[in-house]
Amino acid sequence: MIVELLKAGKANAVSTADLCSMVGVGSARELQTIIARERKAGAVILSSCAGGYYLPASREEVEEFVRTQDKKARSIMFVLKSARQYMNQLDGQMTMTEGGFSDGSKGSKEGIHEKVQGSKQAKVAGLSAEMAQGEP
To answer: What confidence tens digit (pLDDT) does each residue in 28-57 have?
Structure first.
C-alpha cells in the first residue's frame, strides 16, 4: 500500500519518480491509479505539484490540499460547462441534406416541428441540470 511508504509532512514528500520505483510501477499514470484507489478506500494521501506525495502532518496541510483540489475541480466544471453549452448549440442546429435532415429524418413540416420541439426540450433539460448543480 502507498500509505505505508509515505511519511507525514509536506517536507517529507516522496517524488512521483521515487514512489514509482518503490512501488514497482512503470509510469506516473499507474501510480495515480493506485493512489486514487487508496483514496477512494479512505486513505488521506496528500500531494503537491512540486513536492510529491505525503501524509498529513497538520490540519493546515490538509486545508491547503483541499483548496488546491477545489480549484482544480472548479476549473474542470467550467470546461465541462462550455462543452455542454456547445453540445446544446449543436443540438439546436439543423442541417438539410437532399431529401431530409442529416440524421435521416424527412424535411416535412411535421418533422421540422418535432425536431425543434425536441431541441427546445433538450436545452431546457440541460439548463435545469446546470441550475441544479449550481455555478462552479
So the answer is: 999 999 999 999 999 999 999 888 999 999
